[in-house]
Amino acid sequence: MGTEEPRVTRVEFPGSQSARLSGVLHEPAGADGAETVVITHCFTCSKDYKVIVAIAKLLASRGARVLRFDFAGTGASTGDFASTSLASNLSDLASAGQWLAEKGYSASHLVGHSLGGIACILSARLMPEVRTVAVVAAPSSATHLLETIPEIDPQLAVRDSVHVEIGGRQIAITRDFVEDLKSHSVKETLAGLGRPFLVVHGTEDRTVPVAEGEELFASARQPKGFLPVIGADHLFSNPEHAQQAAEAIALWVGV
For 214-241, how does the pLDDT look when each residue is reduced to its tens digit (9 = 90+)? Predict the structure, then answer.
């Protein structure tokens, strides 16, 4: 690895729903043979959340090529957030892999935060080039969101959508979105993942408790790893905690 700073480039590529997906590509000096990592964000977050950026920067500083991007309807990507779903996230992740392949790169490693971690687990079976998967603060089921906001299901029984507050934002949850969440079995997918799997979870996560990470770890087969980051919250808002997560992921992907 050279001593030059990694090059950071804003990129754009097609995604689901005819959206244009906004991304940031981190490329270390002499990156021709570099490992390529794709990082996904949580349900209401973006590629620019601190923990996502911290992981990307550290991996790139160790010689990895890293793509972090916004799912359709979030961040700087186009698209209607209310029309997105976990299925559209999977499509966007596949689009990211295809875009990298067109550049001559292989998306060898997937890293996802929270629901983005679920997307990585489910997408890996559809992306044979993926060699490892790592999740940060991810729930053990796609329907965890429904468990934290129990009023969603009964309200959707009588209407097509319901507005809820998540992370200080008013979010429209549709019946189609919920039905899509219910159609995915994360634990079953994990049991057949067939790739090294890492769980990183904060012990003070009040959004997705650390017990969820423990369940993911229990569902996966070897080789697997689990790192509880003492004191970390859901967003790993303390830079030291984000650094610990990044260090563990760097070791996992081999950079």
Answer: 999 999 999 999 999 999 999 999 999 9
